[in-house]
Structure formats: C-alpha cells, structure tokens
Design a protein that fits this description.
Blueprint: E1 20-21, E2 37-42, E3 49-55, H1 58-69, H2 83-93, E4 98-102, H3 110-128, E5 143-144, E6 156-157, E7 196-197, H4 201-204, E8 210-215, E9 225-229, H5 232-243, E10 248-253, H6 260-278
Antiparallel strand pairs: 1-4, 2-3, 2-4, 5-6, 7-10, 8-9, 8-10
Helix pairs in contact: 3-6
C-alpha cells in the first residue's frame, strides 16, 4: 500500500483514476462513475493537493465542481464549499486543475467513506506538513471568501490593504506519537486529561478551547466520537444528552486553535489516525 505518495494511482491501496483536467469541457468527466467515491484535486504548478473530498454521487459532484471553478466570478460556497478556494487557486496560478477519483465498492457505506476522507487528509498533513488548500472552508491569501448563496456575497481578489480571516494559515500536523493507542493519555502526542464521566463534566472543569474524545467503558477501542470546540463546557452539556451521562470523556486544551478551520484540521487528523489504527472512524462520528 502506498501511503505517502498522494499523487500515485495506488495511494492508500486504492484504485485511483488517472489524473485528468477539472474542466467542464473535459469529456472524460462524463464517463466518471456515478457511484459513491472519494476524489482529490491538484494543480501541477503547486506542491501538495488542493482538495480531498467524498461524495455519494461522484459524476454529478465532480462535473458540478468543474463548472463552479470555471465561472467568470467566484462561486458561492454552495453547492460546493471548496469551489471558491479552487476558483481562487485557478485565478492566481492559472488553469490546470486536475482531478483523480476512486470509487471502491464499499464507498456506499457513508461512515467508512467519510472515515477514509479523514485518513487521506491526515496522511497528507503528515507528509506535507499542511492540509490540502481548499479543505475546511479556507481561501488563499489575497482573496475574499464568498458567502453561501442565501447571503448573496461574492468573493474575489482583495485590495492590497484588505485581509480575509479564512486565509489565515492553518496549523501543522500532530507529532503522531502513540498513534495506535487511541485511548492513551498521550495519543498523537497530546496531553489528554484523565477520563471522566459526562455527568461529572462540571467537576472536571474543561478549558474553553480544545479537542475531546468520547467512549464507553470497556468498549474502547474503537472510540465513540472525536470532536472540537471553542466552548467545551457547552459542547459537553449537549453531548451528555446524546451519548449518556455514563459515557467517558477526555479532553486536551489547545488555546492556539483560535479559528474553526484550525480546530477542524486537528479533529480530522485525529479521526484519520483512528481510521488508520482500527480501519474505521469512531463508531458514532458521522451520525
């Protein structure tokens, strides 16, 4: 299995299509399978991948993304949240976006498919030191992000004195120490709190910003859920109703994760590491 070569046709032991232009005029996109799958986008003039995504309807999703990336103006964040950033990459770097797709039979299982997406992002982060450019709702420097269509705000190039919060750099990968020990106090090189039951969340006094993992006694591994929040006390209150007061939780404070895309990067990396260790994401991660 090729883990580190994110452009290879056998990346992660999967059967990927050859790279082809992400262009609405590319007839090869019409022959893409309509079954569920995972796809990756690159620009040959840049290192690393620009995007990793998953979908239940591959052909339609890929063709729609190609159209959005080639609009005369930056598209909205719907129907594809990565389209504004990929549009900006094309505008700044020039045409040349390419796509490669895999549609394994088991991709119909949405839980496993989303777990694979997280694992691919995690492996990419570990190899390159950063996330794919357009994941987590980000935009590249020099551009303003579009809104969703209901708010009717188009993004585009910024003036020299303007800034955009979503272009703030992400955070680097975790140390990947004890990556297989998902219930360890040092999982992925982080300093996790001692486990406590959700009913005791107030006594545990969790920090405001950080990451957390939930499991049920005698059932881990695998974990039940991995999450992130800028308000852990409130999030854990909601989770007590969802997972039950007896569920165990452990958290790690990360005040440097001061933007949602930064927290999502690390949350996804943890989910991906869990997938690599146990061939599945946490059991209730995706509903």
């Amino acid at each position: 299995m090729t883990l580190t070569d994110y452009e290879a046709e056998d990346w992660f032991g999967l059967d990927w299509t050859k790279w082809t232009r992400l262009d609405p005029d590319n007839g090869q996109l019409s022959s893409v399978s309509s079954t569920p799958g995972v796809y990756r986008v690159r620009h040959p003039e840049k290192d690393g991948l620009e995007y990793i995504g998953e979908t239940g309807r591959t052909r339609g999703r890929v063709r729609a993304l190609a159209r959005e990336c080639h609009r005369d103006v930056m598209p909205y964040r719907d129907p594809h949240t990565a389209a504004p950033c990929l549009w900006a990459v094309r505008d700044a770097t020039g045409p040349g976006l390419e796509i490669s797709i895999t549609t394994p039979d088991w991709a119909e299982n949405v839980h496993r498919r989303k777990g694979l997406e997280a694992a691919l992002i995690a492996v990419h982060r570990r190899k390159t030191g950063e996330s794919p450019t357009a994941n987590f709702g980000r935009i590249i420097a020099g551009y303003k992000q579009s809104s969703y269509s209901k708010d009717d705000v188009r993004g585009g190039p910024l003036d020299p004195n303007e800034t955009e919060p979503n272009s703030d750099s992400g955070v680097g990968p975790l140390p990947w120490e004890q990556a297989d020990a998902v219930a360890s106090s040092e999982w992925m090189g982080l300093d996790w709190s001692k486990p406590f039951q959700l009913r005791d969340r107030l006594d545990a006094s969790p920090s405001d910003t950080g990451l957390y993992r939930i499991w049920r006694e005698d059932e881990a591994p695998p974990l039940t859920y991995v999450g992130e929040s800028s308000n852990l006390p409130r999030r854990l209150y909601n989770h007590e109703n969802e997972f039950g007061s007896n569920a165990l939780i452990s958290y790690v404070a990360r005040p440097n994760l001061n933007a949602q895309h930064k927290r999502l990067e690390i949350e996804t990396e943890l989910i991906g590491a869990h997938y690599l260790a146990h061939e599945q994401p946490p059991t209730e991660q995706f509903g």
